[in-house]
Design brief:
Layout (H helix, E strand, L loop, with lengths): L1 E5 H11 L10 E5 L8 E4 L2 E4 L2 E5 L13 E5 L10 H7 L3
Antiparallel strand pairs: 1-6, 2-5, 3-4
Length: 95
């Protein structure tokens, strides 16, 4: 999946990836929403339902700043879809 991203925000991800001693990685999460706005979210006191799907992206520590003026297109692999085990896997990687 390709995503147009503001250069400033992309470069912020690079800053975090290159921070010495950074404990928690900075991830970009892109939500893919249904076409109909009324279908996006359902909020009740006992549950929150977000419809469609989301993908995560993290730059590598050796990435270089983009010199583009406004936007950069990044490619997010389809295997980076957020699933039920996403958060467990992310926090296990920190150990």
């Amino acid at each position: 999946m390709k995503y147009d991203f503001e250069v400033k925000n992309y470069n912020d991800l690079i800053d975090r990836a290159n921070e010495n001693g950074s404990f928690i990685p900075l991830l970009l999460v892109v939500f893919i929403m249904p076409k109909q706005k009324k279908d996006w979210v359902n909020i009740k006191p006992e549950e929150l339902i977000l419809r469609k799907c989301a993908f995560w992206y993290q730059v590598e520590a050796n990435e270089i700043y983009s010199t583009n003026k406004y936007k950069i297109t990044i490619e997010i692999p389809k295997q980076n879809r957020i699933t039920m085990d996403f958060f467990d896997n992310q926090f296990l990687a920190l150990d």
